[in-house]
């Protein structure tokens, strides 16, 4: 019986056609990595890490984005073992491991003995999809944020990140976080309701491809929560992003956040698979 020959290596721009084929096996779930690949063309100076490929008999079977976020792509059990060995050998310490739950949990099982307990394991995160405008009326106040509104929106971004991730982004890289918020505004990927200089609601598109985009950082001002603002506001964002960015809108949410899940369901998002995130 012939043995399968396997190997792992960093992918290069010459691997783009085969990597695209792999990512297109599930373009919604693999959206983050496809966005990074499209933006950088696998040029190391822009990627801020590597994308590894796991090959069987010369064919690309699985991949893994290895940077600040570790994100496996179509990863088989054998590929996960090799990715884990490479991460440990290269002494990579990401801020998170993110992806489909059935992949992330066995991946973390391989890494946890060396890295110790996770700071915040999110073991069940419904991945939700909407491919049409919402069935509820959109809030007409939702609009793209203007770059001269950066200083108004930035504190809400910091508050949301701190609340959701449990880390103050200004404590780790203030300049880097400010640059990222400004980049999203400049791209037309930041949306908000702003009244009298106060951010009532905001969210961003964190990643996009021609097929789909992913919302992140949904925030309602603490004094206004529980007043039904989120649903119509998100419906407004969905309408705008489907016109200007991509026809399918995705997001993922912590399973225990029942208030947010109900809001997304009212808008029309459907739970299609389950993610997990290991925050380190």
UniProtKB/TrEMBL annotation:
The keyword Transferase belongs to this UniProt entry's keyword annotation: yes
Signal peptide: none
Pfam families recorded: Acetyltransf_1 (PF00583), DUF4081 (PF13312)
Protein name per its UniProtKB record: GNAT family N-acetyltransferase
InterPro entries: Acyl_CoA_acyltransferase, DUF4081, GNAT_dom, UCP21603_acetyltransf
Enzyme class, UniProt record, top EC level: transferase
Alphabetic keyword roster: Acyltransferase, Transferase
UniProt-recorded Gene Ontology molecular function terms: acyltransferase activity
EC number: 2.3.1.-
Top-level taxon: Bacteria
Domain N-acetyltransferase residues, every copy: 140-280
